[in-house]
Amino acid sequence: MTATEAGAAPTTMYRIVGKGYEFCNCQPGCTCNFSGFPTSPDGSCKALVGNYISSGSCGDVDLSGIKAVAIIDWPKAIHDGNGRAVFVVEPSTTDVQIDALAKIYTGQLGGLPWAILGSTYSVAGLVKAPIEIIDNGRHSSVRIPGVGEATGTTLKNPVTGEDNIVDIALEHGFIWKLGQCGVGSFHAAAEGIDLSFEDSNWILYDFDWSNAD
Amino acid sequence: MALVGLAAVGWAWSIVTARQMSPWAMGGPMAPDSMGMGSAAATAMSLTGFMVAWLAMMAAMMLPAVIPVVRLYGLAAARGAAAPVPVFVVGYLAVWGAVGLPASLAWRALGDPLANGDAWVGYLAATVLLAAAAYQLTPLKTACLRHCRSPLSFFLRQRGDLRRPRTALRMGMSHGLICLGCCWALMAILVTLGTMQIGVMLSLAALILIEKNAPQGVLVARAVPAVMVALGVALLAHPSLISHLG
Q1: Coil, strand, or helix at residue B194?
Q2: Domain containing B122: what range?
Q3: Which residues on adjacent β-strands are paired with residue A205?
Q4: Could A116 and B80 be called an inter-chain contact, meaning their C-beta atoms sit closer than 8 Å?
Q5: Residue B53: other Cβ atoms inside 10 A
Q6: Predicted-complex ipTM score
Q7: Number of domains in chain B
Q8: What residues pair up with A171 in beta bridges, in sequence order?
Q9: How far is Cα of residue B44 from the mean position of the Cα atoms in its chain?
Q10: Which pLDDT value is given to residue B126?
Q11: Residue B35, in any domain of the structure
């Protein structure tokens, strides 16, 4: 490799579009969107995030149809860093695809939000396991046999028990612009990370991420 | 931390400048010079001198507040996922530097009258204090404050490749604009009370730090208008009080 300046070397362009299934241990709504500090009992942020990439590519590597799950444990707020992450991909994912995904999600190829988010955690491990995503709006589930499971449902009005349909619309959001909120439960154990939460944050969203400027 | 160091330099510079400039610190208002162009201090400091002092003051007041954002950005820069931290910080300070231009005009106009305790300056400061108090309670302020309090959510609302210096600079400026949205009224208070007053600088810097970073910051932002209104009303009743503030 020639000694070119960082930024002058050609960057592999990527774009991934799909659906995100986000479960974390804070109060429903994920306060990172509001006051900026976790509202979990211990001030930590622990999450299970499933991504179904309906279409996407990184350079000339096709990423369409891939399902990936990240299980991340941040000791405090995400912006304080020091998170540990385990990634799960299906056995059918090729090494070339895994390499592309790793570069995207750890921020090595730039682009937001992963340039920032990817810097807040280190990857503790990669697991290959079947990933089942039951896409049913706010009642979706993500199941990873041998690793864990996350199930979401609608928020309920605490008085009448009726469904409380709440969306978070971030006009300038970049992880997502419209998140459909619910309440979820999840548990997952892999590579030294063991998480289990009930009745906490669950948000379904569409994503469209790229490192184009 | 480099930011704390920079801020410290800013404070040191501001304190020295304030001492040099303050006519009444030297034992009483100075007599107007024979050409009637205002106090020696005002004419002695050129626009460049003011801009340098202003930038030092802004660095002193604002850099401590942006430490969490810069720290998060720094995590990415350390791994080469973003342009070096100074690029982002320069973009941020550029916004506050630009504010220095109108501030310099106000400073020139207010210098002498402030030293003399002219009534109209007292009324002006009172008006600004009352307007600032009102602004603290507006939805715009709340929106700006919400954006600036969450380092993560700031970046989640941006788009682009941070490794490109141009993008990093732009993002620093975006954050500067958000800070401006939160703090413009506080800076206006600073200018109308005499710009280089260390006491006022310290109070405002502390308020900004708390609003942006403390868990109770939003509550403090809502409560502080009471102090502003009290000061404003006091100035309306006794405008000459202004020469004793700071």
Answers
A1: coil
A2: 2-15+44-244
A3: A20, A179
A4: no
A5: 24
A6: 0.72
A7: 1
A8: none
A9: 23
A10: 85
A11: no
